[in-house]
Design goal:
By secondary structure, this protein is mostly helical. The chain has 44 helices and no strands. The protein starts with 5 loop residues before the first helix and ends with a helix.
């Protein structure tokens, strides 16, 4: 043979797979036909024989002879070899003994080559007539007679049958068939037929068929053969069947081959099938740790469900393997892999299944977060109580820090020593693997480095363009960085609060609340570098839990002990309220309400999260803002249900009062609610339309409106004035009527709420006006257009101001009667305009400096200017005349 390697001739890599070798040989046979290319066929055949033996050394083949038709079976066999072979393959005691077949082969060697050639194909035909033959014995005869090499000499049909037989022989026997020697021929055939059928079902048929066959009652001889036991272990494992004998055999094989993953798997599986979880558990753990075996993960998860369900969420998190690219390549869309919610599809399926498991509140809240049903703040009440004494809670803290923790907290996961309990150690290993991925990303991402530079820059710098689009991957990565909490300086929080790309809806709760406090509340956040990141994060969790309060968390907050918070901390006043609650007394919500001081912004935000009745809200209206009524209406169904039972006009008044609200969101939402109210008559439709047009409405004729008619009329007037004139404040009559209506329990609840809300809006406007300069103005200060004068001041400015202007002109301009008159007229008109505008400011008329926009009849307007008292409270143009003297 040439020096060319056999594998190169066959066109495959070196392998022990006999099926692959045969297939390569068959594929090349048409290329090297013996008649057209005898030398090529010879090289191919030599390469095939070498490959089957697994060596590259040349082999010696018989000289190639031209193919000839198979010889006919001789009519007589003078050698007696055919009869001897027939006796061999039909002898129960000898048919499966290789030594007997070797003895027969030695008899062949005693005869000339020509005699053997004449018997080659008759012997094959004899084998094909037998039901069951030993593959180990058959391969001995096949190699001696070169059946595989000489197949081209016979017809296609017989060659195909022979090829199938030889393929069977090369697969080897299922077990040592010599163990069947004591049985009868029929018993041998029945035994072999059964095991061949089992093997066929194992490879070719559905698992249910195999299970049915193995469970079918039958009497069968089971040879004592290790080779058969090895296969039976696989068969019964696939069918989810086992017995003590198979389990013990697998454990013995594992002891002999401790590094073999297959025996480790079979041992764990058979122990599980037998219900021997005590032995199975360490085997499955070992299989997972060493080989990340998928079935090991599933079994461990199922074990947790059965034995310790609270560890199930931790195990799911530990097994998560999202497809995260290397940090250096995370520059495009792959950045999305670093999002906090990035999890593998298999993990998402496991979370969905875990929602059906009965677990503790701690585990249930973790599942709710990870499955996407709730945001991570659902875990805050649990994590605040973590002090390192509870192993389970400590593991949940570490699992949560994969998303929430900054670099220091992630490093703490990596530094954590492995627990002695195997399950906890497996969980921690998985968390450490993910923490290392997260930490490498946080420390090595070029995209994050650019975002951090912008966020921490002291001067005002524009946001890098790559983060401006909320649909881009860079923006997603910046949000993921913000989820990994770290204490940010006030100017950085201010940047986030003011930039449209980062708002409350996308920022994590622990950051969005701090942004809110910086932007809306006069509170100084501590910059104490001595506080550990762990305690600082727990403090922010405490703040979010108190402000975005859930009733179920009140008792948890009241039971917090030794929390790392001192009395100088800005959150202390809020935390102290919860420490005063005694769960033993019951009614924790009522106790909390009694301790809240609504003038405190933190207390007020907490109050809006409690179940507050409309009556409670009205009673504390002076302590709260009108926007909280809108909040309660939107988020407490009880409010909507009660107000929905009120008469249509009162519901309409409640929504209409917000049309003059300083908060555009409140005004827009209630405008939509007003338009959506269902009117049952033309009068109600007209009533709503008048409110929408900011006109004084005409109430429908309805007996149900009689009791509150006067209050409703006053509320309607106040709503109309407030919504049409931004300078208007309720006069004493309307204010008194609204006060009486809000406090009268006999009046409809919607009307009471409308009156109370109108008073709040009026107070807000009044407080807003006090923020303007409150310097008193005098009638002679005609140049101060944005100031106020009363009735007397109007008359004095017009009369005395005009007279002084004329006298001044006459004194200065001595000559030119026309110039004198023109200048005097101009000064008089300017003085008159100043007086009228200033008096309009006092009356609270909108657009007082644009008289043509005041849609009031001239005579009525004149009477107002001369006889009506001005607004009794300060407005944006200053205090009323004489206000300081009265004060």
């Amino acid at each position: 043979m040439s020096s060319q390697p056999c594998w190169e001739i066959l066109g495959i890599s070196p392998t022990q797979d006999q099926q692959m070798i045969r297939q390569a040989y068959r594929d090349l046979l048409p290329t090297y036909h013996p008649e057209n290319d005898p030398e090529g066929f010879k090289r191919l055949r030599e390469a095939y024989e070498q490959a089957r033996k697994g060596v590259d050394e040349p082999v010696t083949l018989m000289p190639l002879e031209p193919p000839a038709p198979p010889p006919e079976v001789p009519a007589t066999d003078p050698t007696g070899l055919l009869d001897a072979f027939s006796a061999l393959i039909n002898s129960p005691a000898e048919r499966y003994l290789p030594v007997r077949w070797l003895r027969f082969i030695s008899q062949l060697d005693d005869h000339p080559v020509t005699t053997v050639d004449k018997l080659r194909w008759p012997l094959l035909e004899a084998v094909l007539q037998v039901n069951f033959v030993s593959a180990d014995c058959l391969i001995l005869l096949a190699n001696r007679l070169q059946w595989r090499m000489r197949l081209p000499e016979i017809g296609t049909e017989m060659a195909q049958r022979a090829d199938d037989l030889l393929n069977f022989a090369e697969g080897g026997d299922i077990f040592d068939l010599s163990t069947l020697a004591p049985l009868t021929l029929a018993a041998q055939d029945d035994t072999l037929g059964y095991f061949h059928q089992v093997r066929h079902f194992y490879w070719e048929q559905p698992t249910g068929w195999l299970r049915y066959l193995l469970e079918e009652p039958r009497v069968i001889f089971w040879p004592s053969c290790p080779r058969l036991m090895n296969q039976m272990a696989r068969w019964f494992n696939l069918a989810a069947l086992s017995d003590a004998q198979l389990r013990d055999h697998c454990l013995q094989q594992l002891e002999l081959n401790p590094d073999d993953p297959e025996w480790l798997y079979l041992s764990a599986s058979h122990c599980s099938i037998m219900g021997d979880d005590e032995r199975a558990f360490p085997l499955w753990l070992r299989l997972h740790e060493n080989h990340q075996h998928a079935e090991a993960e599933q079994w461990l998860l199922a074990w947790c469900v059965r034995n310790d369900a609270d560890y199930l969420p931790l195990l799911i998190q530990a097994f998560d393997r999202p497809d995260i690219p290397p940090v250096e390549s995370a520059t495009g869309d792959e950045e999305n892999a670093y999002r906090p919610q990035a999890q593998s599809p298999q993990t998402l399926m496991r979370w969905a299944e875990a929602t059906q498991v009965d677990v503790s509140p701690l585990a249930a809240d973790f599942i709710s977060w990870k499955s996407g049903r709730y945001r991570p703040q659902i875990m805050f009440p649990h994590l605040m109580q973590e002090d390192g004494t509870d192993d389970l809670l400590h593991l949940y803290w570490q699992a949560s820090m994969l998303t929430m923790g900054n670099e220091t907290l992630l490093q703490a996961i990596l530094d954590q020593p492995l627990p002695t309990i195997p399950l906890q150690a497996t969980i921690l290993r998985g968390l450490q693997r993910q923490a290392a991925q997260r930490l490498a990303w946080l420390q090595g991402s070029a995209v994050l480095a650019e975002f951090i530079t912008w966020l921490h820059a002291a001067e005002e710098t524009p946001l890098p363009e790559m983060f401006a689009d909320s649909d881009c991957a860079a923006w997603e990565q910046s949000i993921a960085w913000l989820w990994h909490w770290r204490p940010l300086p006030p100017h950085s929080l201010g940047k986030l609060a003011q930039h449209p790309a980062y708002g409350e809806s996308v920022l994590p709760a622990h950051t969005s609340w701090l942004c809110y406090l910086i932007e809306n509340v006069d509170i100084a956040l501590p910059e104490d570098s001595q506080t550990s990141p762990r305690d600082a994060l727990r403090q922010v969790m405490l703040l979010e839990t108190m402000l975005d309060l859930k009733v179920d968390n009140i008792s948890r907050l009241s039971n917090l002990e030794d929390f790392p918070l001192d009395e100088q901390h800005p959150f202390w006043s809020m935390y102290e309220v919860f420490t005063q609650i005694d769960p033993v007394q019951g009614d924790e919500v009522g106790q909390l309400k009694s301790h809240l001081v609504l003038d405190n912004s933190l207390h007020f935000n907490c109050w809006t999260r409690l179940p507050v009745s409309i009556e409670e809200y009205i009673a504390r209206r002076d302590e709260s803002s009108s926007s909280s009524a809108h909040y309660f209406y939107r988020y407490q169904p009880e409010w909507q249900e009660r107000l929905g039972q009120s008469p249509f006009p009162y519901q309409a008044l409640y929504h209409a009062v917000f049309l003059s609200h300083y908060n555009a969101r409140c005004a827009q939402d209630n405008l939509a609610e007003l338009e959506a109210l269902t009117a049952s008559s033309p009068e109600e439709m007209a009533f709503r339309q008048q409110l929408l047009a900011r006109q004084l409405p005409i109430f429908p004729s309805d007996e149900n409106l009689a009791r509150g008619a006067l209050i409703a009329s006053a509320v309607a007037q106040g709503i109309t004035q407030l919504s049409t004139n931004p300078e208007y404040l309720l006069d004493a009559r309307l204010s008194a009527a609204a006060q009486a209506g809000a406090d009268d329990p006999q009046i409809d609840i919607a009307l009471r709420l409308a009156a109370a809300t109108m008073l709040q809006i009026n107070s807000t406007r009044q407080n807003e006006f006090t923020q303007y300069p409150q310097r008193r103005s005098y009638f002679w200060q005609f140049w101060r257009i944005n100031s106020r004068i009363g009735r007397l001041g109007l008359v004095l400015q017009i009369v005395l101001g005009s007279e002084i202007a004329i006298m001044l002109v006459n004194a200065i301009v001595a000559e030119g009667q026309l110039a004198n008159t023109a200048l005097s007229a101009l000064l008089v008109v300017m003085n008159l305009y100043s007086a009228v505008v200033r008096r309009g400011r006092d009356l609270g008329l909108a657009s007082a400096d644009k008289l043509k926009e005041i849609k009031i009849p001239v005579l009525k307007l004149l009477a107002m200017y001369l006889f009506k008292r001005g607004m009794p409270e300060p407005n944006r143009y200053g205090p009323p005349p004489g206000w300081r003297r009265k004060k």
